[in-house]
Design goal:
The protein is an alpha/beta fold and about 250 residues long. The protein is built from 12 helices and 8 strands. It has helices at about 15-35, 50-55, 85-90, 100-105, 110-120, 135-140, 140-155, 160, 185-200, 205-210, 220-225, 245-250; strands at about 5-10, 40-45, 60-65, 95, 125-130, 165-170, 210-215, 235. The chain has an 8-stranded parallel β-sheet with strand order 7-6-5-4-3-2-1-8. The protein starts with a strand and ends with a helix. The relative contact order is 0.15. The site of 1,3-dihydroxyacetonephosphate (13P) has 14 residues, from β8.
Amino acid sequence: MRQKIVAGNWKMNNTLDEGLKLTTEIANMVADEVRGDVRVILAPPFIHLSQVKSLIKDTDKLFLSAQNCNENESGAYTGEVSTSMLSSIEVEYVIIGHSERREYFNESNEQLAKKIDATLSEGLLPIFCCGESLEVRESGDFISFICNQINESLFHLSTEQFSKVVIAYEPIWAIGTGKTASSEQAQDVHAEIRKYVASKYGDKIADETTILYGGSAKPANAPELFACPDVDGGLIGGASLKSRDFVDIVKSF
Ligand code: 13P
């Protein structure tokens, strides 16, 4: 069955105290207000992960994600964090290939394929981000651009491995800009992604793949986005830093 997910990507925001306060608020609201079939994921900075885990481990509705990982097992990679470190503190998901990592840290599709492998081999679940810049969108060729990202980073996986992957479509022109993709734009791209996944892994796997939308999602526009047949939830940036807004988005299905 396709899993509904709302994930909060905090990016480089919140001190540890602020992050724990936000987690406690979200955990309380989720316990009281959120129905059981939606999976809520928090993706705080690395240094928060362990303590956020302690706060959410007694609930079955909240899950933990890292925002990145290194593709190597261990060794002389100063400042980096491995997937075995993440699984040792019971992180469940890892965001791979966020557009900010692609842009500011030059992460290529090929390197992201290695990060996907490192994640899966440690039993972690990847949230793989794809999406086009405004320039690519305006060129008209954005579907083939997105399919190429998916092909080069994911299509080496076996069917069994691929079935663990969550895809997040995040048009770069909509991230942090307040300019959300319309629900038609999101639905069109999500349907194309699902069709492309079906061409490689078949209809059943494609139908079961969770595809999230990300980019200026907020309580006001989430209901319309989540009502689209191929939009299975959201990857939320700015609005995930306010507990009320984030939980209202979770309740938008
Ligand atoms: P915003 O919701 O702030 O636009 O960010 C989206 C995003 O990049 C989530 O990963």
